[in-house]
Structures are given as structure tokens and as C-alpha cells.
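Q: Predict the assembly, please.
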Amino acid sequence: MTGTITPPSLREPKAPGEPNRPKERRRRLGRVGLGLIVPIAALALWELGAIAGVVSTRLIPPPSAIAATLGDLASDGALWAHSLATTLRVLAGFALGAFVGTVLGAATGVSQRFGTLFDPTLQALRNIPSIAWTPLFILWFGIFETSKVLMIALGVFFPVYLTFSGAIASVDRGLVEVGRVYGFNTYTLIRRILFPASLPTYVIGLRNGLGLGWMFVVAAEFLGASEGLGYLLVDGQQTGRPSVIIASIAMFALLGKLTDHVLASVGARFTYWQDGFVREGATR
Amino acid sequence: MIELISVEKRFATGLLAVSDIDLRVSEHEIVAVIGPSGCGKSTILRLIAGLEEPTSGTARVAGHDVHGPDQSVGIVFQQPRLMPWLTVERNVAFGLGSGHESSPEVAEVIAKVGLTPFAKALPRELSGGMAQRVAIARALVTRPPVLLLDEPFSALDAFTRIDLQTHLLEVWSWYRPTTFLVTHDIDEALTLADRVIVLGGSPGTIRADISVDLERPRSRTGTTFHRLQDRAMAELGRSRVEAESSAS
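A: Predicted assembly structure:
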């Protein structure tokens, strides 16, 4: 074989989200800018509608009023305390739910026997709307942090479990056989083949789980909490201040997006090798 | 080096894949098995590899009975089966455990298959032929005495296939591992092997054992090559007719 071929790329493949050249950075900024057009236009229309008197400002406060409310809440420190309380609950519940989901997902994905034993039960439990557990959880674990964190963990558990178990079960049989050829035991097989191969799908499961975690924290905080963004929502309703409600919703959106972005970027760092569909106009 | 003694394999489904297989491959020999699809060619390779257990009879490799996969055997499958998340050198070092990707034997075998400039590339950046060369390097990195090839080039286009056949012989001459090649390409078998075994029927049995006494590298022209082609073709044809008449 003559060695006259030149490789398409000699550089170490780079993870996306690692723009070290100004050109790439500019392109990324451009993409973020494009994504901002629609929300900014919607806010502007909303504000104009309020000024023109088309929208009732008593029930639907304009963006400027919401920003003012956020400013007030931020200046007396309440916003940070509530956001922090909620975020910590979500993170604790996410950690617990994702951990159990990962362990059980790996077990049922890898072992036929374990899958036959546990999967039907878990699938049946999954069909119960998880919020239906709330009264029972409050009876069992009290009204304080434990029941809230467990509620969130339950919400996070199912998507993580289902996605990971399914991803492991659908890893290419050929790759698994390579592991057999090298005499891998189950643990090595998981660590060196099954886990890396199912990582892209696993990250999607984690992101789904995190999204549900943010959903469940609201439900948990509705039912008796003295702090947290969910408490702020209820407080805004009871005191007739829609701007507080919308301000809390905005904080949920912001924190949810932020945590998802962190998770997605960390995930992308580990799945840069994927040979998947690249959207039109996207850069690798 | 490889011995199969009255080997029979029946699958759990009840299907009798191969029976009455007696086969011996000497050290440094290259033996090719050809036959129609479904005749159990790959099953024989998997028995030698320890990926299947024979129902009766014995498979021996390097003087030991085969019970499960063993490090004295390197395997190349029809698909490269590279780990898409690992670079070429990490894929080659896969069986050595992590941390060995920068060891000299990995670099040496990557050089043997001519992929040194691609050592840090990911599988998605390789062509099909290059990926299969990585698979060959992975199989040979520990210098196993036995190399098994399961239709290694049948997923490639005709030009790449001929290119890789030449290339395989070059790599083989490195330390001349005992080689067992499963293929459905008569020309490939006659170009590479010292002996061509024709398998046929259902269950598959050995129908012919053809010696190829030609100097390497071989050209695919000349009367001897054509005579061997005709003979292999005739044996294959006969086994197919028998299979059809026994099926009806």
C-alpha cells in the first residue's frame, strides 16, 4: 500500500462548544443572535400592546412591569433565596433520580433476567401520573424537604431509566461481540462498550429527566413550601400580583434553560465522535 | 495449528449448521473456505474463534481445546466493528486495555497497515477500506498465532477489495500468522490461500480441498489460475445441485 493519501483532518477532533478561533466564535454568536429575534419581537409587541391599551395591564402586566418586579425582588434578596432553594431541590432530586435510573437502567439493559424481573413492574408504575404520589409522599416523608426531593427524583427517574435501559439494549451486537472476543466480563463490557455506545441517547434521557425535575419542583412547592419559586407563584396568586407570577415563571424558564444548557454542553463534550445527521447550515 | 475433529454444530433452534467437519490448518498456512450462503462457513470460523461451542467433536487451536474466545486468535469480521468514540490508535489498542494506545506495538501495527497519518482520526473520518485496515491492525496488535477473517472484504467495492487483498498479504508476511479465511469470492480465495476448501449442503460438509500451488503475488490470469477457478466453480455447482435436490 502506497502512503500517498492525505487524511481529511490531522488535528485532534474537537468538541463542539469549544470555539478557539475567532471565526467560529463569531459564527456561534450569530447563531445565538438569530435565536433571539423571535422572543425579543414578541416582548416588544407585548409592551407596545400595553402602551396602546390593547392589553389589560392589570391582569397581563407588560414586560417593563415584570422587569421592575424582578428588580425589586432581586434587590431585597428574595429572588436569589427563592431561586436557590428551588434549584437546590431540583439538583438534589435530579442527582438521586438520575443515579437510581442509571443503575436500574444498566441492570435491566444488560441482564435479561433482571429485565424480566423488574421491567414490567417499573413500566406499570410509570403509567401512574407521578404527581398522584404527592399526598402519599407527604404522609410518609412529611411536608418538608424529603418529600419534595423524592417527588422530583421520581419524576427524573423514569425518563433516565427508560432511555438508558433502551439504549443499552440496542447497542450494536457486533461491537458487543468484539468485547466477547477480548474476554471482557460484564463490568468491563459496560464500561468499555455499552456505556460509551449508549452515551448520546443517555444524555437525551438525562436532559428529559432534568426537564421533568423542573416540572415536579413546581408541584412539590405548590403543596406547602415557605420558600422557592413555586411558593412565589402561589404567593403572587394569593396576593393578586400577576407580575410576581410571571416573574417567577420567567425565572423557571431561565433556570431550566441554563441547567439544560450546562448538561447539553457537558454531554456534547463526550459525544463529539457521533457520525450523525448534521442539520443544514450547521457547523461541525 | 487449527484442528477440527468430527465437529458438528446444532443451534438451539434445532438447525444443524455443519456436520462431520474434519479440518487441519498447518502453521503459517492460509486456508480459505468458500461455499454458498447458509452452508455454515461462518459457523466453522466462529467455532474456531470460541464464539460458538461445537455440539459434538473438538476444535483445537495452538494445541489447546477451544473453550471460549482466546488471545491466541485475532478476528476480523465482515464489518470493521470499530468503536466510533475511539481514535484509530485507541481502537487498535482496544484489547490491550486503556493506556496502551501510545505503545510501540500499536504504532508498529498501524504503520503495517499504512495508516500512521490517521492514528488520531475517528472512525467516521475513514473510508470503508481504511476502517477495515484498522480492524486488521486491531486483530494483529498482539501478534496472535492465528488470524480468522470472516468475509472481511465482501462489504467493499471491487477496487478496494482487490487493493485490500494485496495489502492483507503484505501484512501477513510480517510474521505469517496461520490464517483461516471465509469468503464467497472464488478469486479472492484463489489469490490469497494455499488451500481452498469448498463447503456445501445443509448441514454444511466439506466437498473439496483444492491446493493452490502458485507463487505469490499471484496474477488472476494464466492457465493454472483459470483451471483452479473452473474446478472450484464445478465443486460449488455440484454442492448447490445436491443441496437443492436434498431440500426438495
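Residues 186-222 of chain A form the longest helix (37 residues). The interface with chain B takes residues 1-3, 5-13, 172, 174-175, 177-178, 180-183, 192-193, 196-197, 199, 271, 273-275 of chain A (CB under 8 Å).
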